[in-house]
Design goal:
Shape: elongated
Largest sheet: 3 strands, mixed
CATH architecture of the domain at 74-259: Orthogonal Bundle
Strand order of the largest sheet: 2-1-5
Helix content: 40-55%
Distance between the termini: 85 Å
Strand content: under 5%
Order of helices and strands: HEEHHHHHEEHHHHHHHEHH
Low-confidence stretches: 325-343
Structural class: mainly alpha
Radius of gyration: 26 Å
Oligomer: single chain
CATH superfamily of the domain at 74-259: Biosynthetic peptidoglycan transglycosylase-like
Length: 344
C-alpha cells in the first residue's frame, strides 16, 4: 500500500468518526430537547400572573407565625420612575431591549469564566430568564432546569412585548424587609410611590435584589451605599446618566423610612435565618418558593429579654448620674444604645 493510499484511508476513517460523533451529538441534543419540553410549564395569560407565587412563612418555636416573605402590589410600568427602570436594566440586563430572551455575548463570557477561571462563576441570566424561574417548583441548580428556563424565556419573548416582560419583572423583585415588587419597595424604604423615586433612591433599590439581606440599608448602610455606587456606575457605562449625575446621586442624602414595629420583631435573628436560607437555597427559593420554616426563637422570652434590657439601661443611667429629663427639656435629642437579644 502506497503512502498516499494510507493517508487517504486515515482521512476516510477520521471523516466517518467525525460523522458518527456529530450524529450522536445531534441525537443526544434532540433527546435532550424532548426530555426538556416534557411537562414544560405553561406561560400564564396575562403575564402578570407569573408572579402569583405562594409566600414563604417563618414560624417561632411556639408555632406562631412571625414573618411572611411574599405578597406583591403590582403597578403598571407607566407608574414607575424612569430612573429605576434604567437602573434595573443597566444592572441586570443592559441588552434587554435588543436580545430575544438570551444574551449570547453574556452567555459566552459566563461560560469562558466558568470553564477557564477556576473558582469563579458568573451568571448570564437575562431579565426574561430570571422571570421564567417563577414557573418552576424545583429550584435545584441543574443544567436541565437551566435549559428548560431558557426554553420558557424564549416562549415568553415570543408571546409578550418587552414592556410587558419588564413590568412583570419589576413587580416580583424582592427588596428585603418584607417588600416585594417596586411599589412595596418604594413605600417601605422611602415612604413614596414608585413613580416619585429619585435617581439616588432608584439606584439603591436596584442594588438590593442581588442579596436583600447582605445589602439591607437598615443594618448594612455602608455596604448598601457601595452597592448603590456600583449601580450608578453601570448606568453611566450604559449611557443612561452622566458621571456628574452619578456623583451627585452618590452623595445625596437618603431619607429611609422607619420600619414599622412588626417588621422589627426579632429582626436580628430573622435576618440571620433569611440570610442562611438564601445562602443554602438561593434568593429565588426563599422569596418565591412558598417555604414553611420553623425557627428556635421564642417571642415571649424575647419580649421579656428586651424589657429586662431596657430596665437595666435605665438603672445604669441612674447609677452613672445621667439625668435624661434634664437633657430632654433642653431640646436635645437623647440617643440611647440599642441592644439586640435573641431568645432561642
Amino acid at each position: 500500500m502506497t503512502h498516499v493510499a494510507i493517508i487517504i484511508r486515515m482521512l476516510r476513517i477520521l471523516f466517518y468518526a467525525a460523522l458518527a460523533l456529530s450524529s450522536f451529538a445531534a441525537l443526544a441534543g434532540i433527546g435532550m430537547f424532548f426530555v426538556a419540553v416534557k411537562d414544560l410549564p405553561r406561560v400564564p395569560e396575562p403575564l402578570s400572573r407569573i408572579i402569583e407565587t405562594p409566600p414563604t412563612e417563618i414560624y417561632a418555636a411556639t408555632g406562631e407565625k412571625i414573618m411572611v416573605i411574599g405578597g406583591r402590589e403590582s403597578v403598571p410600568l407607566s407608574r414607575v420612575s424612569q430612573y429605576f427602570i434604567q437602573a434595573v436594566i443597566a444592572t441586570e440586563d443592559h441588552r434587554f431591549w435588543e436580545h430575544h430572551g438570551i444574551d449570547k455575548l453574556r452567555t459566552l463570557k459566563a461560560l469562558w469564566i466558568t470553564f477557564f477561571k477556576p473558582g469563579k462563576v458568573q451568571g448570564a441570566s437575562t431579565i426574561t430568564q430570571q422571570l421564567s424561574k417563577n414557573l418552576f417548583f424545583s429550584f435545584k441548580r441543574r443544567y436541565m432546569r437551566k435549559f428548560r428556563e431558557l426554553l420558557v424565556a424564549l416562549q415568553i419573548e415570543s408571546q409578550y412585548s418587552k414592556r410587558e416582560i419588564l413590568e412583570a419583572y419589576i413587580n416580583q423583585i424582592p427588596f428585603g424587609v418584607g417588600a416585594h415588587g417596586i411599589e412595596q419597595g418604594a413605600r417601605t424604604f422611602f415612604g413614596k410611590p414608585a413613580s416619585e423615586l429619585t435617581l439616588a433612591e432608584s439606584a439603591l433599590l436596584a442594588g438590593l435584589p442581588k442579596s436583600p439581606t447582605r445589602y439591607n440599608p437598615y443594618i448594612h448602610y455602608d455596604r448598601a451605599k457601595k452597592r448603590q455606587r456600583v449601580v450608578l456606575l453601570r448606568m453611566v457605562a450604559v449611557g443612561y446618566i452622566t458621571q456628574a449625575m452619578a456623583d451627585r446621586a452618590s452623595y445625596a442624602k437618603l431619607n429611609l423610612q422607619r420600619l414599622p414595629a412588626r417588621a422589627r420583631t426579632g429582626s436580628y435573628f430573622l435576618d440571620i435565618v433569611v440570610k442562611s436560607l438564601e445562602e443554602r437555597y438561593g434568593p429565588n427559593v426563599v422569596h418565591h418558593g412558598g417555604l414553611k420554616v420553623t425557627t428556635t426563637i421564642d417571642p415571649q422570652l424575647e419580649s421579656q429579654a428586651i424589657k429586662s434590657l431596657q430596665k437595666g439601661l435605665i438603672e445604669l443611667e441612674k447609677m452613672m448620674g445621667i439625668h435624661t429629663k434634664t437633657i430632654e427639656s433642653s431640646g436635645e435629642k437623647v440617643v440611647r444604645p440599642q441592644g439586640a437579644l435573641v431568645s432561642h
